[in-house]
Amino acid sequence: MTQPPQGPTNPQEPVASHPPAAPRPQEPAAPRPQEPVAPQTPAADSAQAPQAEPDPLREAFTGVRTEIAKAVVGQDQAVTGMLIALLCQGHVLLEGVPGVAKTLLVRSFAAAVSLDSSRVQFTPDLMPSDVTGSLVYDASASDFSFRPGPVFTNILIADEINRTPPKTQSALLEAMEEHQVSVGGRSRKLPEPFLVAATQNPVEYEGTYPLPEAQLDRFLFKLVLNLPERDHEFEILDRHARGFDAGSLAAAGLRPVADAELIGRAREAIAKIYIAPQIITYIVDLARATRQTPSLALGVSPRGATRMLGAARAHAWLSGRHYVTPDDVKALAHMSLSHRVILRPEAQMDGLDVGQVLDSIIATTEVPR
After folding, report:
1. Which is nearest to 322 in space by CA: 58, 88, 51?
2. Quick one: DSSP state of residue 220?
């Protein structure tokens, strides 16, 4: 009874004794990790690094943030949004309570990119010709001559755009979409680059005219400027205590770091950014999900999806990459989609808002690998 178990154990012992001896002669093969496999990875990284690092053109536009920070504290997301909009030939809608530096941000941005800007205070009595320009009779020539309006600039600050009637609001539709103005039966091109930065107050609704969906869809981004944090507010007051004057940006040390020629070159570089078919499918799925979710009465239009594609390319270029990733799309989803959708009344009664619905759509949409 005892011998049978001892028999199998004895033959197994030599078998177990031989394998330990077998790995020992194989130990000399351990130097394989010391082969040029490990050195190849840093070599590959060093080969890829120069593609993203040394680019004076990109550095010029990343320097715009530094210059704007000399006048505006915080609001980094809004600065990035304006920069992408300029590079994508888009427009921005700035929303925030009074006193959060909406106008100062646009003025600082125009100074940093060395572009002309004009400001129009949209009021209930403003006429379309006050924005686009009009024909004026010239007695000396016995003919009508065109007098350009403030829209003939590079950056138009449309201050409190929701305080003017729809008739005047619609005066910007052609300018925003086609970069031209038609007056007296003749179309006149606007200077390039051209960007509309419109502001509106989300608190006061008396005497306002909400922008129609057709005009909201022409804005690339809706940028919400929130109240500053405690540290940022302290820095704002400290700057003013040391003599900062918002009316003199030059005295604040703000200088131009880009111009129209660099903007044109940057747009050409962005047009070459590779976007894979899987990323395009991802954008399409996000747009279609906004049209199919029961919480939204209006989803994103094909124009909105197209603009999101262009913005993702610009975001990838500013990030130092030559291709678009899903993270580029996610980073811009709220800015480019929130103003293009309409929440159903039932969803509002349930306590939902547009941001929560978009978060749910982004979380449930399949991300390409």
Report:
1. 51
2. S
